[in-house]
Design a protein that fits this description.
The structure holds two protein chains of two kinds. Chain A is mainly alpha-helical. In chain A, 81% of the residues lie in helices and 0% in strands. The two termini of chain A are 24 Å apart. Helix content of chain B is 80%, strand content 0%. Chain B is built from eight helices and no strands. In chain B, α2 crosses α7 and α6 runs antiparallel to α8. Chain B is globular. Classes of the chains: A mainly alpha, B mainly alpha. The interface between A and B is large, with 103 and 101 residues.
Chain lengths: 196, 177
């Protein structure tokens, strides 16, 4: 599916540019965006190195497993495929915690580690049930304090820059519940299909 | 607000402090473990590069050609019928695809309509309450080599759509008076 989306976006864009007379903009954007992507990836190095290093220390010090033990009852329900004391649980929880506090930069490396551990469990290149659940919870965003948005609102002289925190939290909760529900429905549909 | 900023500036240093104190008390070789874990980060960033670059370039082609605008004006009537205010439609359409583009649009909307207008509040709420689905899928699945992604994208996009509707309903109710 990702192949069709990826190629599709480029194909549609180029063909559209042919008739729209925007080919010059396309070829300009082509290299500009490639540059941008490299800058982004290089910029990621600092964050990845720092957090993965620190997380390794936290893991060796037994902090991850303490965290896992505390939140176990809730998270095991979400991820029934993952054995209770598996390291994947620790990474999933650290990812959620980082997201909740709006530390997107810290959340990504932990999320990738969580994915790696889940791949060890499934041992295939197909997305497993827990991977999809994990991903969907991440895309629904868990952020409680939207710092970037508050900063923008301050910049444009809002009377109450933080007044959207409550609505954001409500919307986030609704979206996350919706995401988990939709994920479950799709899972049940897959199970039914496999039985037939 | 000052308490919120204090919390967000204190939380990372305090986390680092906690981890290092516990590890030191347990007599672990902290620096060596840190370096060993950090090495993985370098590898990870490089293996992510082609995934990100491919996706970003493809989105850039679609945007710069004007096809994305055309697509947005094409689906606008449908979304407007569903109760999405027309000013917010481009943001709703782009939010799952490109994080930077969405942030740019949110800024633009706040600038044009004012942060304390209905549109400004709605844009703020929408920006904060969902994440860039396509980016997350690219990074997480790309980094560990998942090729068949199952229902992930479908479920993610459906959740995004519910999130947009939820934002509109909540902002309308909360700021009604």
């Amino acid at each position: 599916m990702v192949n069709y989306i990826w190629a599709g976006m480029a194909i549609i864009g180029i063909i559209y540019a042919m008739f729209n007379g925007t080919m010059d903009k396309v070829s300009e954007a082509l290299f500009e965006s490639a540059n941008e992507a490299v800058t982004l990836s290089i910029g990621l190095i600092s964050v990845l190195v720092f957090w993965l290093g620190l997380m390794r220390v936290a893991e060796k010090a037994g902090i991850l497993s303490v965290l896992t033990r505390i939140c176990k009852p809730f998270v095991t329900k979400l991820f029934p495929e993952i054995p209770k004391d598996h390291p994947a649980m620790g990474y999933i929880l650290s990812n959620f915690t980082a997201n909740i506090f709006g530390l997107g930069n810290a959340a990504t490396p932990m999320g990738i580690k969580a994915m790696e551990e889940m791949k060890k469990i499934s041992g295939s290149d197909k997305a497993s049930r827990s991977m999809i659940t994990f991903l969907v919870i991440n895309t629904s965003s868990l952020t409680l304090i939207p710092t970037t948005v508050i900063a923008i609102r301050m910049q444009y002289d809002s009377v109450a820059p933080t007044e959207i925190v409550a609505t954001t939290i409500m919307a986030t909760v609704v979206t996350s519940i919706a995401a988990i529900t939709v994920d479950r429905l799709f899972y049940l549909r897959r199970v039914r299909k496999n039985k037939k | 607000m000052s308490m919120l900023t204090t919390i967000s500036t204190w939380i990372i240093p305090c986390m680092i402090l906690l981890v290092l104190v516990i590890a030191t008390l347990k007599k672990l070789p902290t620096y060596e473990i840190f370096v060993e874990g950090g090495k993985e980060g370098v590898k990870m960033a490089f293996s992510l590069l082609p995934f990100l670059l491919g996706m970003i370039v493809s989105i850039a082609i679609l945007r710069s050609s004007g096809a994305m605008e055309a697509f947005i004006s094409f689906i606008s009537p449908v979304l407007t019928k569903l109760g999405v205010p027309s000013e917010i439609v481009p943001l709703a359409a782009i939010r799952p695809i490109s994080g930077t583009a969405a942030l740019g649009m949110t800024t633009e909307l706040i600038k044009t309509y004012g942060p304390d207008s209905f549109i400004g509040r709605l844009a703020s709420t929408m920006q904060g309450s969902t994440d860039t689905t396509l980016y997350i899928i690219t990074v997480y699945f790309g980094a560990v080599g998942i090729r068949r992604m199952g229902d992930a994208l479908k479920v993610g996009l459906i959740a995004d759509f519910i999130g947009i509707i939820a934002s509109i309903v909540i902002v309308t109710i909360v700021f009604a008076s």
